[in-house]
Amino acid sequence: MDRTALLQRFDARSRLLVHALHLGAEGARKAQMVFNKQRKCDPHFSLTPFLESLCQQEACLHEDALVLKPLACVFSDVFKQNLLCFLHLIHPGYPKDSVLHLLQCLSEEDGGNQWASALITQLKRDVEGARKGTLLSSNCTETLKSLCGRFRDTDVQGGWTSCFEALEAKGEETDMSVLCQKKRKSDKLDLDGDAQKDPQSKKVKMDFSSSKDEEGMIEEEEAEIRRSQMDQSAGSVSQARSDLLGSSKNLPDHMKAALPVIKELLDAESEWDDSSVSALKVLHECDPNEVEVLCSVLCLSEVSEQCLPQFCSCLLKLAPDLSHSTASALITHLLLKKILSLAEPASRCLVTAVTSLCSRYPRPTCQALIEPLLQKGQLGSAQADLLCRLVIDCLEPHHRLLVFRTALGASWDEGVLSVIHALLDSKLELSQEDFCLFAEHLCSQSPHFSKSMKFAKMLLSVLTKYQSNVNPACHHTLSSVLSFNETFLKKSLQAALKRISF
Q: Residue 91 and residue 109: Cα distance in Å, rounded?
């Protein structure tokens, strides 16, 4: 069956994987690269639709009869081997039930491909977590038994020597056959002057052309995916807007009247003026429940980053200041989702919006943004860098102390260590109770960060900038902390601890 027709059985994303799996010996690795890029663009991307499509029944001709086969069995042996190798590469990130169904479909086809059979058996063992049985086929097992019996005594007739003599004889026959083929090929090339000049160049050109065609098809599929995602996004936004507008029925009339104006400004991404600020004054009259409805109807979590600076600038022009609950709700809806999804340094627009709101509303920012980020766990480097910037540039000492206490109660990782280090470098005014609690946390976490340079540098800041807070009990605790350290800073840390006097 035509491959183009088969591709229509898959969605746009799955077609990219199908194209990659057809790329010869590199197919499995290319498919893994495509899969990783798709996961990077959409962390919730799943292989389930792709695997289910491969298991669908497809009508095809077999020995002049029309039969139904799983779609995976219609493709070439190269595709099927690349598919199995690809599933091995991404283990254990695939949906197990779908993979088992696919393996069952492939097992039912009697193609006699022992390599594919071994891959299927190994995948089943990996998915099911079982290690019973053998990967060897019955023929392979019998052959191995025969070889073992034959080579048990290498000195007798028919042992290793006869085996190698047979191989050498076969090799000589093969060499002669190859020489004859080369002779016939050279005679043929003599008759064709163009082929004699550079017979390999045509093959290279054909391979290159084939590769370019595959790359072009993949680029077309990527463009189709982007268009599909845009259409889906527009449809989902439209559906969400209609659903959420229904929830705004209980809002007062003057709030309902302000919604279309604000929504139009957000969607148009045009310049905001004084009339735009007046439309936002409705936020002063909202109770907490009404603020949540407004944020949902306006889809503030979906506002583009390019629009954030203007919107935040208008919020800052409102007088008097927003209430604590209103500011917290706006910060949560506007910023939290965007910062949580950061995989690279924040854009200038996002940084401008976050720092401006944090400077004006520091306590709501601490509670609605910084605290959830710290408590989430696995703080990425992009999020940690942004939090460090807020700590240094936007927060007053008492707000830094609030963030410090939050960080002590969070699950520590390298990102949280960066934030604590930035807080310590800002010279916190720690009470003796806070410092003793911090020392206990250092002691409990030190075995987990024995080789961490960030942890060691943070300890060095403690021992050099907070010497006045170290009492005899804390001195003993810090000495215990240093005993776990395995970095090259250990001697410097021990020397700094010795210099502390009471």
A: 24
